Amino acid sequence: MSLVAHVQAIGREARALFNVGQAEGLTIWSPNVNIFRDPRWGRGQETPGEDPAVASRYALAFVRGIQGNSSSSLLQTSACCKHATAYDLEDWNGVARYSFVARVTAQDLEDTFNPPFRSCVVEGKASCIMCAYTAINGVPACANTDLLTGTVRGDWGLDGYIASDCDAVAIMRDAQRYAPTPEDAVAVSLKAGLDIDCGSYIQQHATAAIQQGKLTEQDIDKALTNLFAVRMRLGHFDGDPRINMYGTLGAADICTPEHRNLALEAAQDGIVLLKNDGSILPLDRSTVTSAAVIGPNANDGMALIANYFGPPCESTTPLKGLQSYVNNVRFVAGCNSAACDVAATDQAVALAGSEDYVFLFMGLSQQQESEGKDRTSLLLPGMQHSLITAVADASKRPVILVLLSGGPVDITFAQSNPKIGAILWAGYPGQAGGLAIAKVLFGDHNPSGRLPVTWYPEEFTKVPMTDMRMRADPTSGYPGRSYRFYQGKTVYKFGYGLSYSIFSRRLVYGTSMPALSSTVLTGLRETMTEDGDRSYHVDDIGTDGCEQLKFPAMVEVQNHGPMDGKHSALMFLRWPNTKGGRPASQLIGFRSQHLKAGETANLRFDISPCEHFSRVRADGRKVIDIGSHFIMVDNHEMEIRFEA
């Protein structure tokens, strides 16, 4: 199933809950499409990861799925993409999100922070954008006319409303000291393009702002028009709601077998196999006579669903999932919680030495990462490291370590420990997470997940979280951020993930590759940098020209066995050099395909040079360099030249 199918299920259940009186409205403030810029960020768990191309694809699918049938003017629900823009800090070393001033370059805004929001609006047709607490280069996002009116509503064409993050208008006066009075805060935000405040500040102070001449009734009318237009598109004023296309949705459409299966599928597909020494996995259930299950995340239903969740239809913890495969299972938590400031190491060691196989369920929880809480360390919390090592030493055979967390952790010790045979990362996998993990462990599902973020070593925490720069600065020792720019050591790279099968991928060289010296480029003005690099402005090529430059590329994927399974092929672009802030590489496409053992398939990637070959200059403008570009799949490269 596609991501759209999963999100359609969320949208259907939301409308169904509304129809039966269990929800107060249909405006859903989701998805969070901020870039997971720093591994310590407490809300990174809500996002699709560090890559703007992945986040943009996710944004498009999420919005289309939750808002419903795009051919109808009636919205199933209203999606709200948040938090525009450059928001990725909660509370780090005394710096709080409410007063943080993010210094962001035009280059980073254009090629990292803004693309997911552009995709939400331009392609997904989102009916809402939420502005962030962040003050971007000194101007609060919810008071930023250039962002809200110029970019979101003007350049991107938002057809909907703009909401503030909760109490963001009050914060302009109380924390940011941007506006001297409550009336000024209300006036500057509404005039900038805000339509509704999550909070009561506008309700309390708008009348006084009008009386003081800082706001007009026309400003209020503009906001009300945007708000009520979305309510009309939701069908709130169409009479009997039972007669519209979503009117028949009800209790029977909630927690259906189909939706439960989707929850299981999503959990399975998200599990990443990080280590599998000696092919210890998958296990043969007939040979596993007993199991020791150890860890604070083994039998905690809350560890499955993390933050911002609805009540699950049912919940299968990892312990319960393993008990469905192994008859003799004994459990000890080993830690008082994921914080693990109290550890029952002796009890865990005794259990580990007495059972056939040992499974450790460790990681993080909302105690360490959540809204309002960033981490200061990338190591496992408390005494987890020592507990894992002691249990591994006592076990009869290499242990299996399963990590539940939103953000990455530095588990270098586990990578290199031969007594830890396998490592899986399951994220926060939702209601079916325990069953999904068991299915992977015992080979009923071949893992295919890939890491959506770089896993950094602990030494990365020396980098201030407040430094918003994406690009590295070797002169100062700043290492950069994300796989696109980071120049330091990694624990695991972006896109990493093992399988129980061996897959090969190669670019298929064919006759379909165009010579990109198209007549589209004839007569276009070239620009030249101080380094002598020549390029074309993407805006000058135009929509029609960009369409004519598109071409397909094929990737051959083969499953060499021994198991059937899904595989994701990732295609990257690299430039001949990284001058001018060019990324070291950039993901330009990804495709997944289920292949039987021994099967081969050709996957088509549609390449748009204006989108995929372009880069952003320091001034924020998109250009395509004249000369070589290299499409990469693993170690296979294909050179594409853009000729003058």
SSE layout and pairing:
Elements: H1 3-19, E1 27-28, H2 52-67, E2 78-79, E3 81-84, E4 91-92, E5 95-96, E6 101-102, H3 106-113, H4 115-123, E7 128-131, E8 135-136, E9 139-140, H5 145-155, E10 161-164, H6 168-174, H7 182-192, H8 201-211, H9 217-233, H10 257-270, E11 272-276, E12 291-294, H11 302-305, H12 318-323, E13 329-332, H13 345-352, E14 357-363, H14 384-394, E15 399-404, H15 412-415, E16 420-425, H16 433-441, H17 482-485, E17 503-508, E18 527-528, E19 534-537, H18 538-549, E20 551-559, E21 565-574, E22 586-595, E23 600-607, H19 609-612, E24 615-616, E25 622-625, E26 627-633, E27 636-642
Parallel strand pairs: 1-2, 3-7, 6-8, 7-10, 12-13, 12-14, 14-15, 15-16
Antiparallel strand pairs: 4-5, 8-9, 11-16, 17-20, 18-19, 19-25, 20-23, 21-22, 21-26, 24-25, 26-27
InterPro entries: BXL, Fn3-like, GH, Glyco_hydro_3_C, Glyco_hydro_3_C_sf, Glyco_hydro_3_N, Glyco_hydro_3_N_sf, Ig-like_fold
GO molecular function: alpha-L-arabinofuranosidase activity; xylan 1,4-beta-xylosidase activity
Organism: Miscanthus lutarioriparius
